[in-house]
Amino acid sequence: MPDHCPVCGQSYEPEPGFYYGAMYISFGFAVATFAVCGVLLYYLAGDPALWVYVTTVAAVTLLTAPLVYRYSRALMLYLFGGVHYDPRWQHGRAATPLSARG
What we know:
mainly alpha
């Protein structure tokens, strides 16, 4: 992973250990995954055996792990890193990089 965004220059790690908090966000995503899979299996599959729950939740968790980690880091940056979305970057009209703004 690069140290800075190649487009806007935003530092991906504002301070050492910044992303330890992202573990809690990814834990929330994991709990939501377990709950959604459990409820869907209960109602759509008619309360199958325990091994079906475990296998399905494990498979969904493994398949969505890259997205969960990426989005938990992004949410950590947006919520606690002082990063703000600037739609002008999409069109190349912003004058200064986001990391230079206060």
